[in-house]
Specification:
The structure holds two protein chains of two kinds. Chain A is 21% helix and 30% strand. By secondary structure, chain A is α+β, with helices and mostly antiparallel strands. Chain A folds into two domains: 74 residues, Gyrase A, domain 2 (2-Layer Sandwich), CATH 3.30.1360.40; 128 residues, Cyclophilin, CATH 2.40.100. In chain A, a hairpin with a 2-residue loop joins strand 9 and strand 10. In chain A, helix 1 crosses helix 2. Chain A is elongated and about 55 Å long. By secondary structure, chain B is mainly beta. In chain B, the strands form four sheets. Chain B has a seven-stranded mixed beta barrel. Chain B has a five-stranded antiparallel sheet with strand order 2-3-8-5-6. A four-stranded antiparallel sheet of chain B has the order 7-4-1-9, with no helix packed on it. In chain B, a hairpin with a 7-residue loop joins strand 11 and strand 12. The longest helix of chain B is centred in the N-terminal third of the chain and has 10 residues. The termini of chain B are far apart. Classes of the chains: A alpha+beta, B mainly beta. At the A-B interface, strand 2, strand 3 and strand 4 of A face strand 13 and strand 16 of B.
């Protein structure tokens, strides 16, 4: 897909660069994100990544025009894919939705665990709530639409799946994803030197552990 | 810190706020900050503070405090029984009750030097759902950075300014949202033709609007960045004006977008009040 750009009010631009969850779109998102961190256009107050989109917000100075923004983004995305860290996340697979996920996927619960823990994921973006990692891409066998009725309360540390994505809830919140397990690793801690455990571009592997080990 | 007040009840909500924490949205941290920056800065001016000092934001009604030492306080924003736009001296042992609900939603209490509140990621704005500080609770003792009883503050009482009365019915200019074109003609006509009622389930993450349910576009969206002021339409068809504690990315279609001034006006409409939209151009 080509780039497109639209104004969001007078001081922000939304640019889009893909229409599906593919490795290619993810690579673009990661290089855009790194490019904007390293060479932000002048006056940029902040940017926010989506899967295949980026929002650029400007401060009180002059806001660059669309051509200038597109050129900046295209340059940013032509850079090499940043190499992130590799992080292992221990998970107790005992989530409330594990059995339902297994049933709908036509797998045993052990099969779901093997499938989920059996590959490396990339942190595509952080969003929704502080430190919430959107990880891709999930094994197709586990792709399920979101729950019809979101759960009013999902515990901090819950490991969940929805569509082609998997993620970890950093704090207790409502949510519509299917919870399959939990981890004791804290995604976000404002008191830590680096408050965020994961960054876009990091690779993650879930490691199944027993309750006592987590 | 100069201990000043004891919280008897936070009422519908009391929290520290300042101008917020821009720059962290790409880590999932919403910008936060006061719901009504004009009123919050006015409270700081009345207290003789720098305009971005930390204020206490009170929601709707019900907050109650005991004064621990004599000193000066200023209030602006909603009218909860203390005339907004004024500073006055309170005395030790006095009980301050913000139990009336005359107009508006958010009121700002400013104390000399600003309130002493912990900062997270560069801002004292409380975002409890994300672990950034805590809303005030009964029993908390709160204080400010300068001696509130100092005679120098006596002069601030003269700084009364005519304060706005927040209406319960407003009309707001909006831009078309990113997915405006994906909504049916009928959904757009209903959106613009309805006097929407502000839901009691509104809060700092968003103002929910009660009224007819809108038909939503069939195609599902990839999650994308959400600008505060975006009017998202949930799966059930209810419009929600996303405010500055709202999620940084989301997958609901956005029918409209409000600017900061419009967000501030919308935030000050109490539950049951009505909002009409008119689209630019």
């Amino acid at each position: 897909m080509d780039w497109s750009i639209e104004p969001c009010g007078p001081r922000a631009w939304m640019a889009r660069f893909g229409d599906g969850l593919s490795a290619e779109v993810m690579a673009r998102a990661l290089s855009v994100s790194r490019g904007l961190e390293e060479n932000p256009p002048s006056g940029l107050r902040e940017f926010t990544m989506g899967y295949a989109s980026v929002l650029l917000e400007f401060g009180d100075e002059a806001v660059p025009g669309p051509e200038e923004i597109l050129e900046t983004l295209q340059n940013a995305s032509s850079g090499e894919l940043p190499s992130g860290r590799h992080i292992e996340i221990p998970v107790v697979y005992d989530g409330d939705d594990l059995e339902e996920v297994a049933r709908r996927a036509g797998l045993s619960t052990e099969g779901v665990v093997r499938c989920h823990a059996g590959r490396d994921y990339h942190v595509w973006l952080l969003g929704f709530s502080p430190g919430f990692p959107y990880l891709g891409v999930l094994d197709e066998a586990l792709h399920l639409p979101r729950r019809e009725t979101p759960r009013p309360r999902i515990a901090a540390g819950s490991v969940a799946i929805a569509g082609a994505q998997t993620g970890i809830y950093p704090a207790e919140s409502a949510g519509g994803w299917h919870v399959i397990g939990r981890t004791s690793r804290r995604m976000f801690d404002p008191g830590r030197n680096d408050p965020f455990l994961l960054r876009p571009g990091d690779s993650v592997r879930f490691v199944a552990v027993e309750d006592g080990d987590v | 810190m100069f201990e000043f007040l004891k919280v008897i009840s936070p009422g519908c909500g009391a929290s520290w706020q300042d101008a917020g924490r821009p720059g962290w949205k790409r880590f999932g941290v919403p910008p936060g900050g006061w719901m009504d920056g004009v009123a919050a800065r006015e409270a700081n001016r009345l207290a003789g503070n720098p305009e971005n000092a930390v204020v206490m934001e009170l929601a709707l009604q019900g907050a109650e405090f005991e004064v621990l030492r004599g000193g000066w306080l200023a209030l602006a924003g909603a009218d909860m029984g203390w005339k907004p736009g004024t500073a006055r001296r309170v005395e030790k042992g006095e009980h301050l009750r913000f139990t009336a609900h005359r107009h508006g939603v958010y009121a700002y209490l400013a104390a000399p030097g600003g309130w002493a509140a912990p900062a997270y990621l560069g801002s004292a704005s409380v975002f409890g759902a994300g672990g950034l500080g805590k809303a005030l609770a009964a029993g908390d003792i709160v204080g400010c950075l300068q001696d509130p009883g100092h005679e120098a503050w006596a002069g601030v009482a003269a700084r009364y300014r005519e304060a706005p009365v927040y209406p319960t019915e407003i009309e707001v200019q909006v831009w078309r949202g990113s997915q405006w074109g994906a909504f049916s003609d009928e959904a757009r006509a209903v959106f613009l033709g309805t006097a929407w009622s502000v839901s009691a389930r509104s809060n700092r993450t968003g103002v929910r609007l009660d009224g007819p349910l809108l038909d939503t576009p069939e195609a599902t969206m990839l999650s994308e960045p959400v600008l505060p002021g975006s009017v998202q339409v949930t799966g059930g068809g209810q419009p929600v004006v996303t405010l500055c504690d709202g999620p940084t990315v989301g997958g609901y279609p956005k029918i409209a977008l409000l600017d900061e001034e419009a967000c501030r006006r919308v935030a000050q409409v109490p539950p049951g009040g009505t909002i009409r939209w008119k689209v630019e151009g």
